[in-house]
TrEMBL record:
One of its GO terms (cellular component) is cytoplasm. It catalyses: L-histidine = trans-urocanate + NH4(+). Belongs to the PAL/histidase family. The modification 2,3-didehydroalanine (Ser) is found at S142. This is Histidine ammonia-lyase.
Length: 506
């Protein structure tokens, strides 16, 4: 059971909720804060005070006073009118993350919702009722208004959900679980949709996959080193300590561990004096990606526990302040940085693929073909990798440098953070396929060199991976092999990344 309090949620707990279907509950102390802020909202309504989003309209309509008899209609109209998301839905796991993060934010006690709103969000998680939320339509400031409105629709019994493996109406799923729709009261609709939970949820899922992939990229690179008889001296600890980046030192250490007992690695001057950069600079490039991942993790864990709606209620309602915590700029920057860092893992991987298949760059059979000329072997796999790398270069264009005014220029600067997070996830999916291609090529080269000469770790990887993708003995439809290995890496069936950075082994 994961206990939410709006303060301490971390990525380890999020991972348990998302992938292990861990149940969630709210802490007693956080619910007391929720109750206190709710009383403040009710007092504001009763007194007829003019407070944005409670007794006024929204956005450019902030100067329109709303009578207390119309506050429920105001919230209902808000959710329905703002549910303007378009395009394919977010993956179901992202929807689950969105509900979790929204509940955690409300439990900070600054939002003025009733406890039942939080409890119903927790019900959605625990009953595995996941809103169907279109991916496109958010500007990433004023919060993720459109995506979160589709989430809020489910609470009022409207919209659609994923439930028991099917897409169905929200009211059907709620009814089958004995839950009733909520009638939103003052401030509650706004509190549900004024936040960064769509970009953050997408960012969390992207990060968790990126972290796993960064580890996988290292063992795959180690296999390529063996396939090319790479020079192990470039990974000597003294080189990396001399520069001083912790992540670079750690990558080099893991590569040395993977290749500790290999009979295929060489010493400088034994076959050649230096390797190409795509081999020699693995710790420097992969290490820089790890630096970025650490930065992104820090920002995500702050945002996961942030109050991002507007207005915020302090001092039992004595202080109600309109601000801009809904602006997604911190996450927008983090997602753009993540895009660039992960795209580089594919860039350097594709160059290693080229070195594996190009007969002018190695002493292996051309394109790793079993019958060069008659059979093309891995020739077009490199084309596919090059295409994915090139696509990543367009996706890596920073979303955060763009802005466009909205709400009659009241909301005149926005983050585009949700676009950034979606593109980050697309890039990560492309990177995994590039690494799948490298793995296929590296395994073929390793077998040509002789499996009896492999390091223990890479040999174990090869034996497990060969159950997924067989050796290339004849040309076949390699698309199936790439997708099979891609799925295997995504599911991470060998789970080696669960080890610590210093102890990681297969």
């Amino acid at each position: 059971m994961v206990t939410l309090n709006g303060q301490t949620l971390n990525l380890t707990e999020v991972k348990k909720v998302l992938y292990d279907k861990e149940q969630v509950m709210a802490s007693h102390e956080s619910l007391k804060k929720v109750e206190a802020s709710r009383k403040a909202v009710e007092k504001i309504v009763a007194e007829g005070r003019i407070v944005y989003g409670i007794t006024t309209g929204f956005g450019k309509f902030s100067d329109v006073f709303i009578d207390k008899k119309n506050v429920e209609e105001l919230q209902l109209n808000l959710i329905r009118s703002h549910a303007c998301g378009v395009g394919d839905p977010f993956p179901e796991v992202v929807s689950r993350a969105m509900v979790l993060l929204r509940a955690n934010a409300l439990l900070k006690g600054f939002s003025g919702v009733r406890p039942i709103v939080v409890e119903r969000l927790l019900d959605l998680i625990n009953k595995e009722i996941h809103p169907v939320i279109p991916q496109q339509g958010s500007l990433g400031a004023s919060g993720d208004l459109a995506p979160l409105s589709h989430l809020a629709l489910v609470l009022i019994g409207e919209g659609e959900v994923y439930y028991r493996g099917k897409r169905t109406s929200a009211i059907d799923a709620l009814t089958r679980e004995g839950l009733f729709p909520i009638t939103l009261s003052a401030k509650e609709g706004l509190a549900l949709i004024n936040g960064t939970q769509a970009m953050t949820a997408m960012g969390v899922v992207a990060f968790l996959e990126a972290e796993k992939l960064a580890y996988q990229a290292e063992i795959i690179a180690a296999m390529t080193i063996e396939g090319l008889r790479g020079i192990i001296d470039a990974f000597d600890e003294d080189i990396h300590l001399a520069r001083g980046y912790k992540e670079q030192v750690e990558v080099a250490k893991r590569i040395r561990m993977y290749l500790a007992d290999s009979k295929l690695t060489t010493k400088q001057g034994e076959m050649r004096v230096q390797d190409a950069y795509s081999i020699r600079c693995i710790p420097q490039v992969h290490g820089a990606t790890w630096q970025t991942l650490n930065y992104v993790k820090e920002k995500l864990e702050i945002e996961m526990n942030a109050a991002t709606d507007n207005p915020l209620i302090f001092n039992d309602g004595e202080k109600v302040l309109s601000g801009g915590n809904f602006h997604g700029q911190p996450i927008a920057f983090a997602m753009d940085f993540l895009k660039i860092a992960m795209a580089e893992l594919a860039n350097i991987s594709e160059r290693r693929i080229e070195r594996l298949v190009n007969p002018q760059l190695n002493d292996l059979p051309p394109f790793l073909s079993p019958k060069p000329g008659l059979q093309s072997g891995a020739m077009i796999m490199q084309y596919a990798a090059a295409s994915l790398v090139s696509e990543n270069k367009t996706l890596a264009h920073p979303a955060s440098v763009d802005s466009i005014p909205s709400s009659a220029n009241q909301e005149d600067h926005v983050s585009m953070g949700t676009i950034g997070s979606r593109h980050a996830y697309q890039i990560i999916s492309n990177v995994r396929r590039v690494l799948s291609i490298e793995a296929i090529c590296a395994m073929q080269a390793m077998e040509i060199r002789g499996t009896n000469k492999l390091a223990s770790s890479t040999k174990q990887f090869l034996e497990i991976a060969r159950k997924q993708v067989p050796s290339i003995t004849n040309d076949r439809v390699f698309s199936k092999d790439i997708e099979t290995l891609n799925h295997w890496l995504k599911e991470d069936l060998f789970l080696f990344h669960e080890k610590t950075k210093d102890e990681i082994q297969l």
